[in-house]
């Protein structure tokens, strides 16, 4: 007969085992079972769900991609370390009411995004990028007041961007790039965004009249947007990356963009921009900042209708594309010096109306330098040039074109 001490020890071990077996909330366990039934592993060599043993005593510690706190699922990272998943997301995921992060690795998950996710009012991160979701972005997601990161990029979503989405009070990262979204760009952007990426959609309309000054990354390239650039850009003093390329924006480029203290990447190519560039900081009134161009910086203003003399404000830019515009005059000497010392590695000025560049005899450019001056109103230094195929084989513009252009200027 066992002594009382041994009986107590046996009961304690049994109790601990029962607690371990029930370490995950039963409702959450049913939700995980539903997820496993609607998603499948595409790659048999690296199956994600191989660790989801439904008889495991502690799913919180054994299920891949599952993180728990106090027996509730708080983070769900589906497809982690797996090639990809297929299937769809079940609405029953909404019972994981303590969930703060929902992350789906790139795969071929299809169907619509469950509206029931809006019930998860503790969600901070939703990342469902690089899959095949269809349908519209549920407008009911405006109820996710704690959402910090929302990434639905590289799917097949359609419809408009819900206006309430850019009004979420804690949203810092919004990435909806590479879908088939239509309609106007939201005209109210009050969320404290750091990163806004809507490139490669079918958005129309103008930039909003104001955007949060906290923005550091803004891209709406490859859309169908139009209007002046003065809208919404005046207050973006923290901006580091701006890409408005391949739209229908028109009018002059705001001078402030050239003197933002943190901006190192500026892409405005293939629009309908016109007007002249500021020749120096003082040309547009007192500007207290200086641009942060340097290693890794890129400015692309190509394929517009910009005119006048080339500005010196881009001194130090590593990759500078001003080709296919209407610039005139001589290339400023600062760019020659910048190329010779290796600061500027790419300088594309082809297809303008330039008349000279101040190279001294015997100038040699670094091997890393790429200069193109073809099809201007000058005889370019062919031995120093490395042009892309798109520049064409003709070194200079026909004299008649240059003469006619100069007459129109006068």
TrEMBL record:
The keyword Membrane applies. Pfam families: LRR_1, LRR_8, LRRNT_2. Keywords: Glycoprotein, Leucine-rich repeat, Membrane, Repeat, Signal, Transmembrane, Transmembrane helix. Residues 1-23 form the signal peptide. Residues 26-69 form the Leucine-rich repeat-containing N-terminal plant-type domain. Gene3D superfamilies: Ribonuclease Inhibitor (3.80.10.10). It is a single-pass type I membrane protein. It is found in: Membrane. InterPro entries: Leu-rich_rpt, LRR_dom_sf, LRR_N_plant-typ, RLP29. Its main location: membrane. PANTHER family: LEUCINE-RICH REPEAT (LRR) FAMILY PROTEIN (PTHR48009). Belongs to the RLP family. This is Leucine-rich repeat receptor-like serine/threonine-protein kinase BAM1. It comes from Arachis duranensis.
